[in-house]
């Protein structure tokens, strides 16, 4: 059964590119451009969440903190992505499991996903 990955990013170009590559790699992908959607997850929880720090109206770090504080979602690995130069400290402070600075190499992303979903 393929692993489910949710991409939450308000940049459609990134969402499309990452979704295509992950599906090609055999992952099942859902996407959202709205951070609030991530917090509404009840069933169909993903095996991993790719979360952009800056999303319209929502701060990915707040979303990550909320997910990590809920029993239902606290064990979902979160990889935060951002063009911000202080991504490392802010992602880890929010409880993310890993992070990537944009622009990133797909190979690097795939290695991180592989590590966190096995």
UniProtKB/TrEMBL annotation:
Domain Response regulatory positions: 4-117
PROSITE patterns given in the database record: RESPONSE_REGULATORY
InterPro entries from the UniProt entry: Bact_response_regulator, CheY-like_superfamily, Sig_transdc_resp-reg_receiver
Highest taxon in the source lineage: Bacteria
Keywords (A to Z) from UniProt: Phosphoprotein
Modified residues (4-aspartylphosphate): 52
Protein name, per record: Response regulator transcription factor
Species of origin: Mucilaginibacter lutimaris
């Amino acid at each position: 059964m393929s692993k489910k990955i949710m991409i939450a990013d308000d940049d459609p170009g990134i969402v499309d590119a990452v979704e295509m590559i992950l599906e090609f790699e055999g992952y099942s992908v859902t996407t959202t451009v709205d951070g609030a959607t991530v917090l509404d997850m009840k069933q169909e929880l993903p095996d991993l969440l790719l979360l952009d720090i800056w999303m319209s109206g929502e701060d990915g770090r707040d979303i990550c903190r909320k997910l990590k504080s809920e029993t239902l979602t606290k064990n979902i690995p979160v990889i935060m992505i951002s063009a911000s130069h202080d991504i490392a400290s802010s992602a880890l402070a929010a409880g993310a499991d890993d992070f990537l600075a944009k622009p990133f190499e797909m190979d690097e992303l795939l290695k991180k996903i592989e590590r966190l979903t096995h």
